[in-house]
Design goal:
The protein folds into two domains: 41 residues; 49 residues, no CATH class. It has a three-stranded antiparallel β-sheet with strand order 1-2-3, with no helix packed on it. Strand 1 and strand 2 form a beta hairpin. Helix content is 36%, strand content 24%. This is DUF6788 domain-containing protein. InterPro entries: DUF6788 (IPR046738).
């Protein structure tokens, strides 16, 4: 069986196939390398855009102190049999906390 040229994907536009047919093997390898890097870049950009859409900034809570980031969540800590609310957020490798108030306001 004689060696035959590859059959282009039906997804490729005919003008692209015709253009590539005229290029040298060296240029085709440069094009293939560039096309792979470009595809990875565009896929990454698409993922980032999707993540940005999913992580839309929520409105800042009225009772959130100025120095506490809007991504902070409220946690409950028990200290000496009393329960307290704390704002808590990640700052690099550390978990930061800021006192909010008692769970039962009468305490």
């Amino acid at each position: 069986m004689p060696y035959e040229p590859p059959t282009p994907s039906a997804d490729l536009p005919p003008d692209v196939v015709d253009t590539l047919d005229d290029y040298s093997p060296e240029l085709l390898r440069h094009i293939a390398s560039y096309a792979e890097k470009l595809a990875e870049y565009r896929e990454r950009e698409d993922r980032l855009a999707e993540a940005e859409d999913e992580d839309e900034i929520e409105e800042r809570s009225d009772d959130l102190p100025d120095h506490v980031p809007s991504k902070a969540t409220i946690t409950i800590k028990e200290i000496n049999d009393n329960r307290y609310y704390y704002w808590q957020w990640r700052d690099g490798d550390k978990i930061r906390s800021q006192y909010k108030g008692p769970v039962n306001p009468g305490e």
